[in-house]
Design brief:
Blueprint (H helix, E strand, L loop, with lengths): L1 H21 L4 H23 L5 H18 L1 H16 L5 H13 L2 H13 L3 H21 L6 H14 L1 H9 L1 H22 L20 H12 L12
């Protein structure tokens, strides 16, 4: 758990620095910076989406993930959590975007899974140290533009990465199947794309311009690796070195 605790601490520090910077940046500069962050989030989302080894799986996972998200009322549940946290902390309207952007960016991807499993099995935190430094920089930038929602991603880091570390032995076979990691990362990329559009003020939806929200797609992070396990052939060898 040392790697996860370090990661959470550096994100907390970076978010705090970012919030301090955000309070002194002029409104015009803050608006410009927010637009730039939206574009960068789009670029990150595209890069993550192209991790997919089979775009049919990505499409199916995203579509069914969104449908399941609507049926489960994930958006309403997260709205309630966001409203409560926002009122308790004095955050603004970008709270949800900040929380979701930071959570996906910090908790989805090969470095997160491999680092947590390495920590859990070998007690080595090399990968998570590198990730923590990168997250320190990212959280500073995100918090300065998206606000206090970013700092609440620390809770997600502790829960998600802590759970991965404690479950490292059971998750060991997943690391040997790179397809599962690639498809989960790609599904996260689609979520990042929707977040980036939202940050830029571009609503997505054919009938209702606000019908598609990033939080509705969260189930796709589970569906994508399941489909990869069922339909993609595992490579006989992998670069992942986990004993």
């Amino acid at each position: 758990m040392r790697g996860t605790l370090l990661n959470a601490l550096l994100v907390l520090i970076g978010s705090s620095i970012g919030l301090g910077l955000g309070s002194v940046i002029p409104d015009a500069a803050a608006a410009t910076a927010l637009s730039v962050v939206g574009i960068v989030v789009l670029v990150i989302g595209i890069k993550m989406a192209f991790e997919s080894k089979n775009f049919v799986i990505l499409i199916v996972a995203s579509v069914f993930g969104a449908v399941i998200g609507v049926l489960l009322g994930i958006d309403q549940g997260l709205d309630w959590v966001a409203d409560w946290a926002r009122s308790a902390s004095g955050g603004d309207g970008s709270f949800r975007e900040g929380l979701l952007t930071a959570t996906i960016l910090f908790c989805v991807g090969p470095m997160t899974l491999l680092g947590c499993i390495q920590d859990g099995l070998e007690k080595k935190i090399d990968l998570l140290v590198i990730k923590s430094v990168l997250d320190l920089i990212s959280s500073t930038v995100l918090a300065s533009t998206l606000g206090i929602g970013v700092i609440y991603s620390v809770v997600a880091i502790l829960i998600i990465q802590g759970g991965l570390t404690l479950s490292a032995r059971a998750l060991k076979p997943i690391v040997k199947n790179e397809n599962l990691i690639h498809e989960a990362t790609a599904a996260g990329g689609v979520i990042m794309l929707v977040i980036g559009l939202s940050i830029l003020g571009i609503k997505v939806g054919r009938e209702n311009p606000e019908v598609l929200r990033a939080d509705l797609l969260l189930p796709s992070l589970i569906i994508a690796p399941i489909l990869a396990h069922l339909f993609l052939k595992e490579k006989p060898e992998t670069d992942a070195q986990v004993p």
